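Posting for a labmate who doesn't have an account.
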Amino acid sequence: MRASGSSEIRASVPLKLELWRFAVPILWFGLVAAISFIEAPLKFQAPGITIPLGLGIGRLVFFALNVVEGVLLAVLLALTFWPGVRPAQGRVRSLILLAIVFVLKVGVVRPPLNARTDLVLAGANPGESAWHYVYIGADLLTMMLLIVLAVQTARAILALEHKNYAPRPPS
């Protein structure tokens, strides 16, 4: 009786990992969608919000979002390379691309946006910036990669469920 119980626990570990691997990209997707594509543009339509005030709020919100994204990326990396579990190469590629986009977004795109915000907050008018569009593109690419990871994981979950509940020939 104990042997079958421990094998059930071992069999459920990959399923639990896969469920977490599915949940994290969905959560991350929702955060980026809500903040980048709903909160950010709507903030400037609120009564009494000036451009400098909106930029100051945006800087804080996007800094917090990037911190959470970094944590979620670390969690996904840990779940993907969990000891004793061999990750699928397609998911590894998607995760590496996601990590590259995140590092470029935070390390290359955010600094010029922060510098521009500093200029506006100091009273200057630096004009339009292409960096905003690059950041939006990075967020869209992030969201697409998160969908790919979620679909890849959903397929793995279905395969595990099929394997666990497939009829076995009588012995």
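Reply:
Got it, the structure tokens are right above this. The longest helix spans residues 2-43.
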